[in-house]
Q: What sequence folds into this?
């Protein structure tokens, strides 16, 4: 059971919660939603008692296991002798049980006896989820658990949630995840800094919230009309002085009671990617590339080229080598054999869902200043478009919310006239509205693009001209039949 009473919380001058209360009962399954930066991860942090509250009371009864949104360094993981020791520290499970979870979260290629230290952020995050699930706590807290999973992995997580016999709080921008076996939705209203509670699943929440907004609008309209008619009466001037004073008072009272109109959610403004700098006909070609890690051959004689302005989708299940290929393309890894030939005028912009290119200790504004030589006014206006307020631009990158980091990474792409974008899951962490805006900007982009995404809708709308399938290592013109492969394993 979790009970939060009259809690207020802020980071410096930035208020996140203003006097909120909530209750999660035993065996209840709760979806926590709200736009990027609303405070979802903050609330989960407060509940898992990692952070101190300013005012208010957080009470938790029962054991709790919490997996944060992103894991780069987890001391428990870094200090474990093996993956197995990390996942099941008390050795309470058989190997086959542990293996079943690894398979569910698409990590079956990992060796239980290996060390977990050198794994990628996405792999570490998934291992942390498995560790929490194996611990079977009374309260399981998951912050966007499906970010690094494809459709099959998401389905596995969904099934797990629906059969789990204890309480769960789950944050997700993947709304289908919150449409099954969810008892209630807690919505963080970023304007009022309050929590609104809705019974039922996400779909029911959307309906109830819309009804609530419509009702408020109706009440507002009726009261405003009443006020207006009283004001007109006053203008006619037919009343006595006393009546006029009374009427004036009534108008003031009604005005005070006027329900506040719900404000539209603040979202990214429409973005336009700049015209790409002119380059050669073939911005990049990949000649017979192979790459192995130990005995594991990841890429076997990959061979393709890209034409100017062409969009190429990279499709394959987790572990098929997409990220390895992407890292070779952008020069972060080198192939064992073969070469990448880059056009002399190639300007390549790279987006990675793990944000490994950021210096987390740097401020938002300094990050942009370091990357491009633009004047401060221009930088500030772009940052404003990406919803970084004057106060936020001095925040360090490490303290930004997941969605805010993605927004910053995309701002960096927009500030430069790249002619090839290599995008590895560019919508991770983004709320639904922001995903849409990024998609529209990418659709309009005139440069070449190599894109990795597990979101069918996204690939469909981007309409790539060709596709590279891994691990089959086959290149083909795009057909809609490939859509089925986007989300599957
Ligand atoms: N240490 C910190 N110092 C200053 N501000 C912070 C700090 N940590 C978080 N914030 C700010 O508090 C707000 C809430 O952050 P939080 O991570 O809880 O959002 P969220 O709802 O989880 O967002 P997302 O959907 O993007 O993950 C954000 O604006 C964030 O920048
Ligand atoms: Mg978050």
A:
């Amino acid at each position: 059971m979790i009970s939060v009473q009259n809690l207020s919380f802020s980071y410096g001058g930035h208020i996140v919660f203003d006097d909120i209360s909530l209750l999660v009962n035993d065996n209840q399954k709760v979806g926590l939603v709200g736009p990027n930066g609303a405070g979802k991860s903050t609330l989960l942090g407060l509940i898992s008692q990692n952070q101190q509250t300013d005012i208010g009371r957080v009470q938790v009864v029962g054991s709790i296991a919490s997996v944060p949104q992103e894991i780069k360094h987890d001391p428990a993981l870094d200090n474990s002798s093996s993956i197995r020791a990390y996942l099941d520290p008390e050795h309470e499970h058989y190997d086959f049980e542990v293996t079943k979870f690894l398979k569910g979260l698409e990590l079956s290629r990992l060796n239980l006896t290996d060390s977990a230290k050198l794994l990628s952020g996405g792999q570490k995050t998934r291992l942390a989820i498995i560790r929490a699930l194996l611990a079977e706590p009374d309260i399981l807290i998951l912050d966007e658990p499906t970010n690094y999973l494809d459709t099959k992995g998401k389905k596995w997580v969904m099934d797990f949630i629906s059969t789990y016999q204890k309480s769960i709080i789950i944050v997700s921008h993947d709304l289908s995840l919150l449409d099954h076996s969810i008892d209630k939705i807690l919505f963080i209203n970023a304007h009022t800094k309050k929590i609104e509670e809705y019974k039922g699943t996400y779909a029911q929440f959307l309906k109830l919230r819309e009804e609530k907004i419509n009702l408020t609008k109706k009440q507002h309209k009726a009261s405003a009309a009443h006020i207006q008619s009283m004001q007109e009466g006053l203008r006619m001037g037919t009343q006595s002085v006393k009546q006029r004073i009374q009427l004036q008072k009534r108008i003031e009272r009604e005005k005070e009671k006027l329900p506040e109109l719900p404000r539209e959610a603040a979202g990214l403004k429409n973005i336009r990617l700049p015209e790409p700098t002119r380059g050669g006909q073939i911005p990049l070609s990949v000649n017979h590339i192979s790459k192995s890690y130990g005995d594991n051959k990841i890429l076997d004689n990959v061979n393709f080229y890209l034409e100017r302005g062409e969009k190429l989708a990279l499709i394959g299940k987790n572990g098929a080598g997409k990220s390895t290929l992407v890292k070779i393309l952008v020069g972060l890894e080198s192939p064992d054999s073969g070469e990448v030939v880059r056009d002399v005028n190639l300007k390549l912009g790279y987006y990675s869902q793990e944000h490994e290119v950021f210096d987390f200790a740097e401020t938002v504004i300094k990050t942009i200043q370091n990357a491009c030589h633009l004047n401060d006014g221009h930088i500030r206006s772009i940052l404003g478009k990406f919803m970084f307020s004057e106060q936020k631009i001095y925040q360090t990158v490490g303290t930004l919310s997941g969605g805010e980091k993605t927004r910053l990474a995309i701002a960096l792409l927009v500030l430069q006239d790249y002619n090839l974008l290599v995008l590895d899951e560019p919508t991770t962490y983004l709320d639904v509205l922001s995903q849409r805006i990024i998609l529209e900007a990418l659709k309009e982009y005139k440069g070449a693009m190599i894109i990795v995404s597990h979101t069918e809708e996204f690939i469909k709308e981007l309409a790539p001209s060709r596709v590279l399938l891994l691990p089959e290592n086959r290149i083909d013109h795009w057909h809609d039949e490939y859509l089925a492969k986007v989300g599957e394993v």
Observations:
- The pocket of adenosine-5'-triphosphate (ligand 1) is lined by residues 11, 14, 16, 34, 36-42, 69, 395, 399-404, 429 (CB under 6 Å).
